[in-house]
Hints:
Elements: E1 2-4, E2 7-9, H1 15-23, H2 26-34, H3 43-50, H4 54-66, E3 70-72, E4 83-85, H5 87-92
Antiparallel strand pairs: 1-2, 3-4
Amino acid sequence: MAKARGKMIDNIKDYDDLVKFINNSSYRVRVLKTLSDGNVKMPKDIAADCHILPNHISNVLTLLKGLGLLECINPEVKKGRLYRLSADGKNILKDLK
């Protein structure tokens, strides 16, 4: 089970469930795809690239990080955090819509 934002995501039991969960949200899919170029990006840049409102991006990034699909490479800073795909995030891209 993955823990994200204090909530247990009980329905994710295997890889197929994870793919379905990601595909159920265009925001989740867009964030993963925008980071697929291998670059690190700040949340405001991810939001702009994905056409997602900045106040929504934080929740999406926290969830994907909790699922192990993203890495924050500088978690000690409050502003200007940088995100990239994890190895699992790169692997799941091939199975997304």
